Design the sequence.
């Protein structure tokens, strides 16, 4: 199992004593968790960050983890979730893949953090000018052929581009938006675990798009 297994915050269905939880401040409702991400992003946009005490944080996390949000982000080097949400270690459970799409590995990772680490919020985080989505637009529209394993990314992002063809506005921007929306839906429908937690209102799954110029996240709610 991954590091932190056995913490079992919600596994047995009862709250643990504060001393058993590495970061008690991370025990939040889904909407509180979203508010915390929004506040963190506001600090990042404004160019300042909370002071992080790395030593105390490291010690607190030796025994486990209870991240308050799971992030499905793009591999793009310009978007670093911990910076974008001004968060510390132990706060975010992050899966990154170029084009921020769901696959079985991503879903399994999020099932783990939701069921065993008590994470109340998942975010699909797309971003402007995504190269993986742009490559898919070129493959779909112009029949561009891509080398190696890159067609695998195209295959996963293609439904978002196809759904955006013929819509008014910019095809790349529309496809990025649709890709986030579709993958939020995929996570919500990833039965049995995620679907059940959403139905019980223990889990919120939302999407957002990171704006490159200012770092702001445009939330799709
Ligand atoms: Zn990208």
Sequence:
């Amino acid at each position: 199992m991954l590091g932190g297994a056995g913490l079992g915050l919600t596994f047995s269905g009862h709250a643990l004593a504060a001393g058993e939880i590495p970061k008690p401040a991370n025990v939040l409702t889904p909407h509180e968790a979203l508010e915390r991400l929004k506040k963190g992003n506001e600090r990042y946009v404004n160019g300042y960050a909370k002071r992080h005490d790395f030593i105390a944080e490291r010690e607190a996390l030796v025994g486990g983890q209870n991240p308050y949000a799971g992030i499905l982000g793009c591999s793009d080097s310009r978007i670093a979730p911990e910076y974008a949400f001004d968060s510390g270690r132990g706060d975010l459970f992050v899966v990154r893949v170029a084009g921020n799409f769901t696959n079985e590995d991503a879903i399994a990772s999020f099932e783990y953090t939701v069921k065993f680490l008590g994470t109340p919020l998942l975010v699909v985080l797309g971003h402007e000018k995504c190269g993986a989505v742009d490559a898919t637009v070129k493959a779909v529209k112009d029949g561009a052929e891509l080398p190696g394993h890159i067609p695998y990314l195209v295959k996963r992002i293609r439904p978002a581009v196809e759904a955006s063809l013929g819509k008014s506005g910019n095809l790349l921007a529309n496809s990025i938006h649709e890709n986030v929306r579709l993958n939020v839906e995929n996570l919500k429908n990833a039965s049995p675990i995620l679907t059940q937690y959403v139905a019980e209102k223990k889990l919120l799954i939302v999407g957002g798009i990171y704006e490159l110029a200012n770092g702001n996240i445009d939330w799709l709610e």
Notes: DSSP finds eight helices and five strands in the chain. The two ends are 34 Å apart (CA to CA). Confidence is low (pLDDT under 50) at residues 1-15. Residues 18-220 form a domain with the Beta-carbonic Anhydrase; Chain A fold (CATH 3.40.1050.10).
